[in-house]
Every structure is written in structure tokens, then in C-alpha cells.
Amino acid sequence: MSHPKSPKGAAASPSPSHDPEATAILPEDTFRPDVADLDAALAAATAKAEEHFNQYVRTLAEFDNYRKRAARDLENAHRFAVERFAQELVPALDGFELALANAGKSDLALLLEGQAATQRLILKAFEKAGITALDPTGQPFNPNEHEAMVAQPSAAHPPGTVLQTVQKGYLLNGRLLRPARVIVSRGSDA
User: What is the CATH number of the domain that holds 146?
Assistant: First the structure.
């Protein structure tokens, strides 16, 4: 605490009783904290700290349970991702097995009709799963989706045109599953 400066030549007052800004020393028994109040405040603070710690522990346990549940769900999603697709293909397999069992006993026309029905089942399953066929005959060759098996001269088509699809390719939701195997024109050899 700063004391006001005395005018030059005047002596500073040594006694605090004469200085209005001097700090007075209180008697020892003036401040007596109430121990009961302090104990109550400490108990309340301790209870609040325990409550916060318990909330933290519960939140940590909930997060751990969430993490485990998410990992289990992800594992099940990977394990059973093709379940719907497989359910669609099982009737198609039944059709093939029926055709094989009746191969020697049935009329050829009936077997062909059964195979066509089986093909329709497979195509329906592909459609539901987002699988589309690539048959690029007559289109420009695309190395990202087509695999050239042979290049043949052709006067009727510009070079780089797919003349024939040897084996269809397939896309799964726009992503290449298998490239189409094709015969490509290379221009005439005239």
C-alpha cells in the first residue's frame, strides 16, 4: 500500500493511528471461520465431484458399448452383405438343378423354356443387386470397361469400334466387376 508523500522536510508519522491509510492489525480472535460451514461446503463439493466422476464413468462405458456395437454391426454387414442377393439366386440354382435332373427325361423345348426362366431369375436378381451387363457391340472401344481379344480389319466401321462382344462385362452400381471381352476394328488392310 502506498503512503502519501510528506512535504519536504516534514517527518513521516511512525504510528499507524495517526495515518488514515495505514493497515490496522486485527486481534487474533477477530476471524474465526465456522468449521461446520466449511465441512458442509467441502462435503457438497466432494459430492458434486463424485457425481461428475460417475457421469464420466457412465459416459465412458456407454461410448465403449457403442463402439463394440458398431464393430459388431460392421462385422455382420460384411458377413451378410450378399444375403439378399443370395436369396434371389437360390431359386435360379433350383431351376438349374431341376433341368439337370430332367435332362434325359424331358423334351428339349421344355428344357430350353426352363433355362430361359432360370436366366430371367438371375437377371432379376442382378437388377435388384445393381448389377448391369455391358454389351458394347457397335460402340467405341473403352479400355476402362472393355478387354480387346482381337483386332480385325473392317472397312464398314471406323478403327476402335467394337465389332463383336465375345463375353459380356458387368458393372456393380457403376463399378466394373468384369470387363467385356470384345473384338475391335482396326481399319481395313487395303
Answer: 2.30.22.10
181: in domain: yes
Cβ atoms of 6 and 12 within 8 Å: the answer is yes
| Residue 43 in domain | no
Cα 42 to Cα 85: distance, rounded to the nearest angstrom: 65
pLDDT in tens, 133-156: 999 999 999 999 999 999 999 888
Number of domains in the chain: 1
pLDDT digits (tens, 9 = 90+) for 25-64: 877 776 677 888 889 999 999 999 999 999 999 999 999 9
- Percent of the chain beyond pLDDT 90? 53
C-beta of residue 121 within 8 angstroms of C-beta of residue 90: no
Helix orientation angle between 83-101 and 108-129, rounded to the nearest 10 degrees: 170
Strands 146-152 and 175-178: unpaired
Would residue 73 count as lying in a domain? no
Residue 175 lies in domain: 131-190
